[in-house]
Amino acid sequence: MILETIIIIVYSTALILIFMYALAQLNLLFNYLSAQKKQDQSPKFDFSNPDEIPLVTIQLPVYNELYVMNRLLENISKIEYPKDKLEIQVLDDSTDESFETTATHIKTLQQTGLDIKHVLRDDRKNFKAGALKEGLKIAKGEFIVIFDADFLPKKDWLKQTIPFFKDPNIGVVQTRWGHINRDYSVLTKIQAFALDAHFSLEQVGRNSKGHFINFNGTAGVWRKECIIDAGNWEGDTLTEDLDLSYRAQLKNWKFKYLEDVETPAELPVVISAARSQQFRWNKGGAENFRKMMWRVLKNQNISAKTKVHGLLHLLNSTMFLNILIVGVLSIPMLYIKNEYAHLKIYFYAMSFFVISSLIFFICYWFMFKKTYGSSLKAFVQYIVMFVTFFSIAMGFSLHNSIAVIEGHIGKRSDFIRTPKFNINSLNDSWKGNKYLKKNISINAVFEGLLMLYFAFGMYSAFIVGDQGGDFGLFPFHLMLFLGFGYVFFKSLTSKV
């Protein structure tokens, strides 16, 4: 009974943590709905007065972006802003042929009168954080705009964001990501689904009540003074954006999130690219929890509620580990439930955690209907998308849990960039991209084994107990089977 007791305790703890996270999401939903009723009264620079138009530096940190560099540079060159108040830095760490083509393109743009510089350094120390820090040393601007290589800001982007820095307490203005290839595949659809929830529910829900949010690494603006005051960019985590965001807010800088300003970008279209991005984000989140936990708890200038939301925010990626634990232990729990009759009351009591799934269902619906409407057809589409998203998210849980564990124990790893593809429509193909890895990840083998494990879980529903089976966990095991199956087979066919 000792082993059974350990399984029950670990399983229950993971369920409780998921439930706490779900309650936090529900609170963010209430915050979000409340924020929709308020009008923004923020002071703004008057751009009709040339004296109120500040000097801005746009930083473009790039590394081997052969497929999207021309698109990026052409797009940025069209941004509407007085040329004498705008500087562009291409922070180029490239080691392939894209370096030469970028240099040539920059020279062409310089001839148009654009103040654009090709900023180079001797090594990639601290990766993106190091490049941003290096560029900051020579940046002219009072405000620092950052775009990753796959982002395509609209012409009036600076006019929509910079005015909010009229408030001297604002350190960052962050915009919402859009998705130029949302409908390319199931993979891009579920990524867009998840990101839409983050950029509406979470960012607005936290920001509207003064809780900590994060600069998302791109499509935002920093006040240069804020970066310096917070300690500048550091490369000791894989998510330097989250790290600097928390250090700035702990020093009482305010962040402004603009849900209505969309910045289009390209989603990863191949599962290997999504894997590398997910690994970096989830490991970086765990690394920042280790780095920031005590700073958040000990800070005397923030409320208890902000601390709770902050810690849950930093533990966001750790939910994948809890999901994996619940999934793996759910099959032993099925047998324990049907073996020990005196524990059935406990299992009935624990079943209320289905409420967690219902909370997520409700929260994500409010975000989904903002884009697709609230018709019956849209709701049916939402149910299909929600089930698909949750299944595939669970299929990523092993991969992401490894990232989380590495982050929590302090194992260091390189910053692995997400390959870009220049995918804009269904007719575009990712095949032949030189940045894709050719080998199959060892993780994919274990994901295949987990697919079989949860097939056994579904089979178990028919044979446990003496009452003709127990199908309470069957839908859960089916979703896990489909999720791990999707990730496994896509990994084999798309080159991990």
Describe this protein's structure.
The protein has 496 residues and is an alpha/beta fold. The model has no long low-confidence stretch (mean pLDDT 92). It folds into 2 domains: 2-32 and 317-493, no CATH class; 45-282, Alpha-Beta Complex (Spore Coat Polysaccharide Biosynthesis Protein SpsA, Chain A). It contains 17 helices and 7 strands. Strand 2, helix 3 (98-110) and strand 3 (116-119) form a beta-alpha-beta unit. The protein has helices spanning 2-35, 69-77, 98-110, 127-138, 157-161, 186-207, 224-229, 240-250, 271-298, 304-314, 319-339, 344-350, 354-372, 376-395, 397-409, 442-463, 474-493; strands at 56-62, 86-92, 116-119, 143-146, 170-179, 220-223, 254-265. Helices cover 55% and strands 10% of the residues.
Key phrases:
about 500 residues; alpha/beta; Spore Coat Polysaccharide Biosynthesis Protein SpsA, Chain A; 2 domains; seven-stranded mixed beta sheet; 17 helices; 7 strands; about 10% strand
